[in-house]
Amino acid sequence: MFFVYLAIIILIPIYAQMKVKSTYKKYSQVAASSGMTGAETARAILDQNGLYHVRVEETPGVLSDHYDPRDKTVRLSTDNYHGHSVAGVAVAAHEVGHAIQDQEGYAFLRIRHALVPVANFGSNISWILILIGVLASMSGLLLAGIIFMAAAVLFQIVTLPVEFNASSRAMDQVVALGVIRNDEERETKKVLNAAAMTYVAAALVAVLELVRLILVYTGMRGED
To answer: Which residues are listed as membrane-spanning (predicted)?
Structure first.
């Protein structure tokens, strides 16, 4: 049974990553009929929403695109920044969706930002406490590790509405501005949905692992 569980938590993230990479690769070769680059798309949406102060910059890497709320910058990977593909404009619009969330004070985004230091600390120390607790049969340390891990899992869960909402905003914006047209809406949704799968997979695996550890803890307490 354990090996089945292990296969599940390994295969789910791998499948999600393969899906997003294959979908992105496919639609990065499909040109958007508007002819706009990812950078132009991002700038147009930002200006349309009055976010003139938010910069759009190129960043190295593949699918390294992100929005940095600290210095109000949308950073797009080279291919998406310069490219005219459906995938590129979809990713650019998604990242701008986060900038709009930031501007509006979107609740789940604020919660996620607040959880960042707690989640980082929790993910770093939780497994140390869990391993010591399990190996030394110290249920108290195991419980402490589970609590810290729960903070990291909560971060993963809160990330889901943030990402889905950014994608929803992205679709509304690219359609309204005419960046994509007709059948491109379906193609753009495929890119955004594939990317969302990685977050769903990460959250699912995190929850499953947390539940497993809670069961280990209850079993250990039962033996005390």
So the answer is: 127-155, 191-215
